[in-house]
User: Fold this.
Amino acid sequence: MANPQEQKFDRSKEREEPEFHEKLVAVNRVAKVAKGGRRFGFAALVVVGDGKGRVGSGHGKAKEVPEAIRKATEQAKRKMIRVPLREGRTIHHDVNGRAGAGKVVLRSAPVGKGVIAGGPMRAVFDCLGVQDVVAKAIGSSNPYNMVNATIDALKRMESPRQIATRRGKKVSDIVASRESSHGGKTPEVTAEDKA
Assistant:
């Protein structure tokens, strides 16, 4: 029997691991041609996220589907990236991503717009925790390229704080310029301004 101190340690270890959302995007049957004929296996594409701004994708191959999914999930957890979100619900700015022949365009959206994106991209946004975004896939519809292009675009995402630090400005200056250039509230034009 294990002593009580070890049991406490095990419980605390279980609590540390955050809860992840897993989405199975694609399962393919793959074949390897050997001397006696074809050997079949399975390839799985999985997206994992915490719903609070972290997401990763993984690819696993095995003889059985559950084992392929397990391998893909482990790889996705290792490859997780952190993405800055605006108000915890959308992305900060429009961004493009590319992987192979797959291109994606991601645009921030107002409250209540929802996730408007095709299948594999939707899985990434659900795991990431984004509630409002508009996305369009251009070119390849291959799920591997779409997921990788979406994650590539998310890697290029920068928060106003990161941009302000890089430029040596205040965050308020960056946010103010964003609102004035992207259809924020425009000042009323008076008769004096027209003259």
